[in-house]
Amino acid sequence: MIFACDLDQTLIYSRNSMGPIEEDELVPVETYDGDYRSFMTRTANLYLQRLSQNILFVPTTTRIYEQYNRIFGLTEAYSIPSRYAIVSNGGKVLVDGKPDADWEHRVRQAVLAKCAPHLEVKAIFDRLVSEDWVLKDRYCDDLFYSVIVRRDLLPAELMEELESRLRDLGWSSSLQGRKIYLVPDHVSKGSAVRYVKELSGSSFVFAAGDSLLDESMLELADEAMAPNHGELYRKYGVHKHIGFTENSGIRASDEILARLTNRMEVRKAL
């Protein structure tokens, strides 16, 4: 079994995103500039330690490789092994910590052949936004854009308008916290999870994620969950395939991992 799980605001949380929780219930999992930046609950951490001994835990994130490597707590040294990982929103698959060159070549060829050039997409975005709203932008791994914005200034209709403009160009957009992502359709978590499934010979995928960029892998999964604080919940509320948590914030990860643990117990009993 594969457990393909988004990281930020699904499994791990910053202090700004976690919601109310006692300090002694937190386990730090990421450092940056000498500070702890991301955390799990002790409950979720214990669940994942046990689960990762029996299934393939596949961290699946929009973070680029360097950002992913800041997360020290999701490693074999901390009793959470992961032979496979997916970074750059599916643009890279890591096998034993190293990028899979065949997958990366396949992704880049598909983007070049089937998606509009990134500068054309960025020009459309720039025409829709004001300089006052945008704090910083970055073209990540020569694949997609990450734009830090002042979310309080964004017009309510911006994301809908952006999505309609990008659809015919083979790109999509997602608003997560104070970041807008502009991503080619052929850079997807779903495609990367399917590739890992083939590599590993696994037959069942349990997936979890909070944003529209996670939707492709949740649709691929045999069972899927999403926190009720995320972009997916705001869009759907109820979904025929994706189960939403009752808890929000960092407690949502406890609920997701409890469900997966129950699923494992049921499968063992069959």
Classify the secondary structure makeup into a structural class.
alpha/beta
CATH class of the largest domain: Alpha Beta
User: How many beta-strand segments?
Assistant: 14
Largest sheet: 5 strands, parallel
Which CATH architecture of the largest domain would you pick? 3-Layer(aba) Sandwich
For the biggest β-sheet, the strand order reads: 4-1-12-13-14
> Secondary-structure element sequence?
EEEHEHEEEHHEEHEEHEHEHEH
CATH fold-level label of the largest domain: Rossmann fold
Distance between the termini: 15 Å
What Rg is obtained from the alpha carbons, in whole angstroms?
18 Å
Low-confidence stretches: none
**Percentage of β-strand residues:** 25-35%
Count of helix runs: 9
What's the CATH H-level homologous superfamily of the largest domain? HAD superfamily/HAD-like
- Count of structural domains: 2
Estimate the helix proportion, in percent. Answer: 25-40%
Apparent shape: globular
GO molecular function: hydrolase activity
Keywords: Hydrolase
Organism: Cohnella herbarum
Pfam families: Hydrolase_3
Detailed description of the structure:
This protein is of the alpha/beta class. It folds into two domains: 2-107 and 187-269, 3-Layer(aba) Sandwich (Rossmann fold); 116-184, Hypothetical Protein Ta0175, Chain: A, domain 2 (Alpha-Beta Complex), CATH 3.90.1070. Helices cover 34% and strands 25% of the residues. The protein contains nine helices and 14 strands. The chain has helices at residues 42-51, 65-68, 101-114, 118-128, 158-167, 189-200, 215-220, 231-236, 251-269; strands at residues 2-5, 26-32, 35-41, 56-59, 84-87, 92-95, 98-99, 134-140, 144-149, 171-176, 179-184, 205-208, 223-226, 242-244. It has a five-stranded parallel sheet with strand order 4-1-12-13-14. α1 packs parallel to α9 (251-269) and α4 packs antiparallel against α5. The longest helix is centred in the C-terminal third of the chain and has 19 residues, at 251-269. The radius of gyration is 18 Å and the shape is globular. The two termini are 15 Å apart. The mean pLDDT is 96. This is HAD hydrolase family protein. Keywords: Hydrolase.
